[in-house]
Specification:
Layout (H helix, E strand, L loop, with lengths): L1 E4 L5 E6 L2 E6 L3 H4 L2 H8 L4 H8 L3 H8 L2 H12 L3 H9 L4 H19 L22 H13 L1
Antiparallel strand pairs: 1-2, 2-3
Length: 149
């Protein structure tokens, strides 16, 4: 199968069995309504969503402009740092800002609850990024988990 780039930069001519066929390579965000593009982006996991936002200005504008895309990812953090997420939302912060604020706290809490730091003998033995401000309820959960071990 031969391929020839046409003068229109978004199209490619493919010659199959001697006949030219036009294949469009236009960005789906340029042809679909924004709501449909948001629906497609909503299927991405957090890492892929962040990567997609770096792809081009059009994708970034859609992803950054849609609070809905960040909401579901933020709700996974909600189970970890409920008070912090609720507080950020009451302060009027976007779902993305709320996610960024609370993501690290969620990671730290999960590591503590899984026992990653159970054998630490002193504060000097704590690895970097193992501490951050957490609410009293969270530290209570961590203490209970440690006592059960």
């Amino acid at each position: 199968m031969q391929q020839h780039v046409c003068k229109r930069k978004s199209d490619v001519c493919v010659f199959s069995e001697g006949r030219p066929a036009l294949i469009s390579q236009q960005d789906f965000t340029e042809t679909l309504p924004t709501e449909m593009s948001v629906r497609i982006f909503s299927e991405l996991d957090l890492r892929s969503l962040c990567s997609a936002s770096l792809t081009c200005k059009q994708w970034n504008d859609i992803i950054e402009g849609s609070d809905h895309l960040w909401r579901s990812h933020c709700l996974t953090v909600l189970a970890v740092c409920r008070r912090d997420v609720d507080g950020d939302r009451q302060d009027g912060l976007t779902w993305k800002v709320t996610l960024v604020h609370n993501y690290r706290k969620g990671c730290v809490k999960r590591r503590w609850l899984k026992g990653r730091y159970s054998n630490i003998r002193s504060a000097d033995d704590l690895p970097p990024n193992s501490m951050c401000p957490l609410d009293v309820e969270t530290w209570g959960e961590i203490l209970e988990a440690e006592l059960e071990r």
